[in-house]
Specification:
The complex is a heterodimer of chains A (about 300) and B (about 425). In chain A, about 35% of the residues lie in helices and about 25% in strands. Chain A has about 300 residues and is α/β, with parallel strands linked by helices. In chain A, helix 3 packs across helix 4, helix 4 (about 125-140) runs antiparallel to helix 5 and helix 8 (about 235-240) packs across helix 10 (about 285-295). Classes of the chains: A alpha/beta (about 300), B alpha/beta (about 425).
Chain lengths: ~300, ~425
């Protein structure tokens, strides 16, 4: 049940009707053998926004990113990145990816890693040195640039993984679950990095299955499952459309009762009038509720 | 091109920083080469000395003194032999040279300033110039020591001095007088004069011994020393170690995701593979050159043909680069590639001379061995080091190696491109 987004909700977002999409996947189908990975996925990422791709394991997020970077071809549908075919070498200089798996050489230093990847993107000379310095400073690793990556902590490696994606100064940055397995400090630093990228005018596509990350960072969030787009909107839009009613919890004689209702104040007044209310709490709908409502509560053990 | 070079440089840096790969690429083959060389008989004893034959046709006290003097140096494995047999041994490389002491040597050495000077003839293998130069030096050293003994009276009485004085009687008056002055001075020398000073006093234009050389056309069929067998084998192990290091490194890169990042960049897939191949090619060349240099420095292994050796080294590097890509495409994981690689390479090494030297193979095994590319490489290296192959002998092995390299690259690249997409 693909759903339309509502561009009028956030005035800070670019005009979706007129802007050229930074990334556009239209009715993309992809099979791995007999297994269907993407079933007509539609995504439209606008320039300058942080676009969240939220889905359970095996939803097709990484496949979508691999298609977006030209690593994988599609069975059906069309892909446009920055207005062109992502397999064009010239266009590939304009985007960068931080894969989910750490894509770094442990026996090289942080600086050597970045220099190598930047050189592969055609940078050289003073411009290359400047970009490497800037990328190291951006992820707060300037003082550890000469150390081998094998000696970095998990959080430092994750930050360097992002630096490797941006060292060639791309317009579009694809971050595939960039906070997996890092401590809270490093996660916060990565959040700051992502927000700083947006302030620099870059477009970020951010895949995750952590609700709080999507809530905190993303201008718009797409919820995908089983290779399909289930919903895409701003956080408020998703909550309003799919969040359902607020939940009212009332404790009477030591027993807690949860009431989901569109009129919590009316329900609360009625409960107080009935007497015996010891405590009550009211919680608005959450993204997790939206997510579980759309994707279901069944475990996803299938890869 | 810059990106291809960057990729190659990165892989070479990783090779140098990975101790395990570095060990199995450079150190292990060297240990194998030295170890097997010593086991084959290259360590210590007479095997380490130059084997020199001596045909004493004079049978005089002086010729015996020369033989004893050479023997006393303890640098030569000296053996008496007749000329006919000795010539054959030198031709076949079983001895460095034949020293032929002609009749009249003793008489000439007793009469320093009269007639033809004492001389010996060296029959040599011209390809062993370094050893021949050393042998000539040793002969001059022994002859000088003999002269020293004569001058100091330690070696014999001074009969030779009286003979020389008598011989000088036939000289013109103006030439005779200076000689008589010399003989007077020599008679007055104390018996304990150190022999070294006598040697030092020899006139520059005069030599205590005249050495003439004759080159024999080499028909050698065997290796010069055991290291001529063990080092080519070591090189083969170095090539295999390097190949496996790069193949498994490639698989590891695919597993870790760095390959994925590279493939999202602007480099074409073929450029990425060329970068990998270039790094492997450079490393494969380096391991061969390094081992050969060490063989030269440590064990005096001199190739019979440098151009041929250079061609063989290059062809082997091309072949193993192709095999590297082929093996790298044989599995999806590091362990898979490693297992497939060793499963394919070990039998080829076993029959190709990596374990049993080609020279020691039974006839049936030698026939089977001809199907292994390891054999093509090993036989060609040996051909350039000691077999003395003609260029026509290299034609098939080198063609095979180059073809294998090109085919391996093409098939490996095709398989990898399919597996990665």
């Amino acid at each position: 049940m693909p759903l339309e987004s509502n561009p009028s909700r956030d005035p800070c977002l670019p005009n979706l009707a007129t802007a050229t999409a930074a990334l556009r996947l239209q009715a993309v189908h992809k099979h791995y053998g007999a297994q269907l990975a993407l079933a007509g996925l539609d995504i439209d990422v606008q320039p300058g926004e942080i676009f969240g791709l939220l889905g359970p394991n095996g939803a097709g997020k990484s496949t979508a990113l691999h298609i977006a970077t030209g690593l994988l071809g599609v069975d059906r549908g069309s892909v446009q990145v920055l207005g062109g075919d992502p397999r064009q070498p010239a266009l590939r200089r304009r985007f960068g990816i931080a894969p989910q798996r750490l894509s770094l050489y442990e026996h090289l230093s942080g600086r050597e890693n970045l220099t190598f990847f930047a050189r592969c993107h055609g940078l050289s000379g003073e411009h290359l040195r400047h970009r490497v310095d800037a990328a190291l400073a951006f992820v707060a690793l300037a003082d550890r640039g000469r150390d081998r990556v094998g000696a970095y902590s998990g959080g430092m490696q994750r930050r360097l993984n992002i630096a490797a994606a941006i060292c060639h100064d791309p317009e579009l940055i694809l971050l595939d679950e960039p906070t997996v397995g890092v401590d809270p400090q490093s996660r916060n630093a990565i959040f700051d990095n992502v927000l700083a990228l947006k302030r620099q005018g870059r477009t970020v596509v951010y895949t995750t299955h952590y609700m709080e990350e999507a809530e905190r960072l993303c201008d718009r969030i797409a919820i995908v499952d089983r290779g399909r787009l289930l919903a895409v909107d701003t956080l408020n839009g998703l909550l309003k459309t799919y969040g359902g009613n607020p939940q009212l919890r009332i404790r009477r004689a030591g027993v807690e009762q949860a009431i989901t209702t569109a009129t919590p104040m009316v329900e609360l007044e009625r409960a107080i009038a009935d007497g015996g209310v010891e405590a009550f709490a009211w919680s608005p709908p959450s993204l997790e509720q939206v997510f579980l409502g759309l994707t279901g509560r069944a475990l996803r053990d299938r890869p | 091109m810059t990106a291809i070079l960057a990729l190659a440089l990165k892989d070479l840096t990783l090779l140098l920083r990975n101790r395990a790969t570095l060990f199995f690429t450079f150190v292990w083959p060297l240990l194998m080469a030295i170890g097997f060389g010593l086991m084959f008989g290259g360590g210590g004893g007479d095997k380490a000395k130059m084997r020199v034959l001596l045909d004493d046709q004079d049978h005089s006290v002086a010729s015996r003194a020369l033989f004893d003097g050479l023997l006393a140096l303890d640098l030569l494995a000296l053996q008496a032999s007749d000329t006919a047999s000795a010539r054959a041994q030198v031709k076949h490389g079983r001895a460095v040279a034949l020293i032929e002491i002609p009749k009249g040597y003793g008489a000439a050495s007793e009469r320093l300033f009269y007639g033809v000077p004492a001389s010996v003839r060296l029959l040599i293998d011209p390809s062993r110039q370094a050893e021949i130069s050393m042998l000539q030096g040793l002969l001059m050293q022994v002859a000088s020591q003999d002269l020293g003994r004569k001058l100091s009276g330690l070696g014999s009485d001074r009969k030779w001095l009286q003979t020389s004085r008598a011989d000088s009687a036939s000289l013109p008056e103006d030439q005779r007088q200076p000689f008589n002055n010399l003989f007077d001075a020599l008679e007055k020398l104390p018996a304990a004069t150190p022999s070294g000073s006598a040697t030092d006093g020899a006139a520059p234009a005069w030599q205590p011994l005249q050495v003439t050389t004759e080159s024999l056309q080499s028909v050698r069929r065997g290796p010069r020393n055991p290291f001529a067998i063990s080092f080519p084998q070591g090189i083969l192990w170095g090539l295999v170690g390097c190949l496996m290091g790069f193949a498994t490194g490639f698989a590891q890169e695919r597993e870790q995701g760095t390959w994925l990042r590279l493939r999202t960049g602007p480099m074409r897939s073929v450029d990425l593979l060329l970068g990998k191949a270039l790094a492997a090619l450079i490393a494969l060349l380096a391991v061969q050159v390094l081992l050969l240099l060490l063989a030269r420095l440590l064990f005096g292994l001199v190739p019979v043909s440098l151009p041929a050796l250079a061609s063989v080294i290059f062809a082997s590097a091309i072949a193993f680069t192709g095999m590297m890509l082929l093996i790298a495409s044989a599995g999806h994981t590091t362990q898979g590639v490693s297992s497939a690689g060793w499963a394919a390479l070990m039998p080829l090494m076993m029959i190709g001379g990596g374990m049993i030297p080609l020279i020691a193979m039974p006839a049936w095994m030698a026939k089977v061995s001809a199907f292994s590319p390891m054999n093509w490489s090993l036989r060609s290296i040996e051909g350039a080091i000691w077999r003395g192959y003609a260029w026509s002998d290299y034609l098939w092995p080198l063609t095979g190696l180059l073809l294998l390299g090109v085919l391996g690259f093409a098939i490996g690249a095709y398989r990898l491109a399919r597996a990665l997409d």
